């Protein structure tokens, strides 16, 4: 079943693959588009520099 939320997540995932923002990666779980794994790297020259 395709809900508005699932459609939105698929659209966001396609955009993330096509033009990913710097320092951010994310992919949905193989079996559930509502569950994601993401990594956000700390920006340079910030308290989070080098962090994940």
Automatic annotation (TrEMBL):
InterPro entries: Ub_conjugating_enzyme, UBC, UBQ-conjugating_enzyme/RWD. PROSITE patterns: UBC_2. It comes from the Eukaryota. Residues 4-52 form the UBC core domain. SUPFAM superfamilies: UBC-like. This is UBC core domain-containing protein. It comes from Papaver nudicaule (Iceland poppy).
């Amino acid at each position: 079943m395709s809900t508005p939320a699932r459609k939105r997540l698929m659209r966001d995932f396609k955009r993330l693959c096509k033009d990913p923002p710097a320092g951010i990666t994310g992919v949905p779980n193989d079996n559930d588009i509502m569950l994601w794994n993401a990594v956000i790297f700390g920006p340079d020259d910030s308290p989070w520099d080098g962090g994940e």
